[in-house]
Design brief:
Structural class: alpha+beta
Helix content: 25-40%
Number of domains: 1
Largest sheet: 3 strands, antiparallel
Strand content: 25-35%
Distance between the termini: 29 Å
Radius of gyration: 16 Å
Shape: elongated
Order of helices and strands: EEEHEEH
Strand order of the largest sheet: 1-2-3
Number of strands: 5
């Protein structure tokens, strides 16, 4: 079973600086966690870390359905 995981990436580009010339913020919508980023490696690291609970979902015996782990169920909802 597939799970939708949504991230928001905001980048501020400065064309007058050297490459990559941007900084920004990445946010996990499900947990409201945010991180300041300055490289594509920062963005990918944040996303990969937040995907682990989804990929580590437990498989139940009934119909081979997937169940999100207890940790994922307890993640807080955004209030903003």
């Amino acid at each position: 079973m597939r799970h939708l995981v949504t991230f928001i990436v905001r980048l501020w580009v400065d064309p007058e600086t050297s490459s990559p010339g941007y900084e920004g913020q990445v946010e996990c919508v499900a947990t409201c966690e945010q991180k300041h980023v300055r490289s594509s490696e920062d963005i990918l690291s944040f996303i990969e870390t937040r995907l682990n609970p989804v990929f580590n979902a437990e498989t139940t015996q009934e119909g081979n359905e997937r169940q999100i782990t207890k940790e994922r169920k307890r993640m807080p909802k955004c209030t903003s």
